[in-house]
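Lecture notes, continued. The same structure-token format from the folding unit now serves as the input rather than the output. Read the line below as a description of shape only.
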């Protein structure tokens, strides 16, 4: 451990550790379930999907689940379900995937970005309340990189101002906030379940709620075959609102958002084993961070053990980089040196949305002015410097390995690579 690999020393990771990073775990049971859909030639039906929805709702202890063809559709449907429309403002964070917020523009609303907490990388409730206006309709919380948002103050703000809370759970399937499942705390939870997520079933999304109005509006928005039209026998179970029934057979959003039944079949099997697999991932990732607990330059991105909050499947795990502890080495250089040790890591978060052209000067729908402000009474665009913590943390976050199995001897090798780089940081040439 006398010399870093980038300068000719031995590499920390030399072995191929097989399936420790493979995801999702696919077995004969998964294949049989998908093949059954194919053999019945029922790929575009909804019977398997409805069973998956019932089981997914049961897992979360909610009344309703609605499966969609992707996570963006789930978020979009949740927004419509909450009544977001022309002139409404929605508050969310800038450091997230665009799908968390961009559908707001399609509904005629706009996005106001609030700052984040430097430790959790999720919405800062204090700044959220600063951004509340008479036009605020909803808060979209993103449990970013799997870390639960501090939901209690968010819910207090929402109750105080009579606004809705949408949870984007795409990074945190099965995670808890103070003992409560993520996605069940706000008015509605929405998430992607694509093949790379913690809960992975191919391509798809799903929303969950106990609010019948939100659920029925989401159904009417993108599931034309489930509103009473085309001989549906399910309308009595799904749509009771007389006004929504008038539009049976035609989706109010003009979208066909149903989930493919092969994804639904895979989802039913994956759900049976998800809790067990998730707990193993949690055990593996917590062991990794325990090994790095006092290593200079790095801090774990996870809730405290006493908080009753957990990271779920740990999708896209990251750590907080602290350059001041190791000679102010740039995050780019630090990651380069770690990669030379055989550990793949990259710096940064998602590209910040408040600085992207689509939220500043894009006229998407031909309004004659930027879409983000087309239906706003004021110019709510935000320049660089408007979200100081968010902008700072771009250079203070790094990705870490996402272990799918608890194999201490393997995990320790990866942790040792970070330890080696941090302990020999004085060798690093900027």
């Amino acid at each position: 451990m006398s010399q870093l690999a980038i300068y000719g020393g031995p590499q920390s990771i030399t072995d191929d550790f097989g399936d420790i990073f493979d995801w999702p775990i696919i077995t004969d049971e998964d294949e049989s379930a998908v093949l059954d859909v194919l053999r019945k030639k029922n790929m575009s039906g909804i019977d398997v999907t409805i069973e998956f929805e019932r089981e997914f709702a049961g897992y979360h202890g909610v009344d309703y689940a609605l499966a969609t063809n992707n996570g963006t559709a789930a978020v979009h449907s949740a927004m419509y379900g909450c009544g977001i429309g022309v002139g409404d403002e929605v508050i969310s964070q800038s450091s997230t995937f665009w799908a968390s917020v961009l559908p707001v523009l399609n509904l005629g609303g706009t996005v106001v970005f609030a700052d984040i907490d430097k430790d959790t990388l999720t919405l800062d409730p204090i700044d959220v309340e600063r951004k509340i206006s008479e036009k605020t309709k909803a808060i979209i919380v993103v449990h970013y990189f799997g870390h639960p948002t501090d939901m209690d103050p968010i819910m207090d703000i929402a109750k105080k101002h009579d606004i809705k809370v949408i949870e984007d759970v795409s990074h945190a399937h099965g995670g808890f906030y103070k003992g409560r499942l993520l996605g069940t705390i706000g008015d509605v939870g929405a998430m992607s379940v694509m093949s790379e997520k913690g809960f992975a079933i191919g391509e798809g999304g799903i929303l969950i709620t106990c609010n019948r109005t939100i659920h029925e509006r989401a159904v009417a928005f993108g599931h034309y075959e489930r509103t009473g039209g085309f001989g549906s026998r399910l309308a009595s179970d799904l749509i009771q609102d007389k006004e929504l029934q008038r539009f049976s057979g035609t989706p109010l959003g003009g979208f066909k958002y149903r989930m493919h039944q092969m994804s639904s079949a895979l989802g039913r099997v994956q759900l049976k084993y998800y809790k067990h697999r998730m707990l193993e991932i949690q055990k593996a990732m917590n062991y990794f961070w325990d090994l790095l607990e006092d290593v200079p330059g790095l801090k774990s991105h996870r809730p405290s053990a006493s908080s009753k909050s957990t990271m779920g499947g740990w999708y896209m795990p990251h750590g907080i980089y602290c350059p001041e502890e190791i000679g102010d080495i740039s995050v780019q250089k630090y990651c380069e040196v770690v990669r030379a040790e055989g550990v793949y890591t990259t710096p940064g978060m998602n590209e910040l949305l408040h600085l992207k052209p689509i939220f500043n000067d894009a006229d998407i729908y031909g309004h004659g002015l930027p879409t983000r402000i087309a239906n706003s009474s004021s110019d709510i665009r935000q320049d660089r410097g408007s979200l100081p913590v968010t902008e700072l943390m771009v250079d203070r976050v790094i990705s870490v390995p996402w272990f799918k199995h608890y194999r201490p001897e393997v995990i320790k090798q990866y942790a040792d690579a970070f330890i080696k780089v941090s302990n020999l940081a004085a060798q690093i040439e900027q």
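Point for the exam: The CA atoms of residues 334 and 421 lie 8 Å apart.
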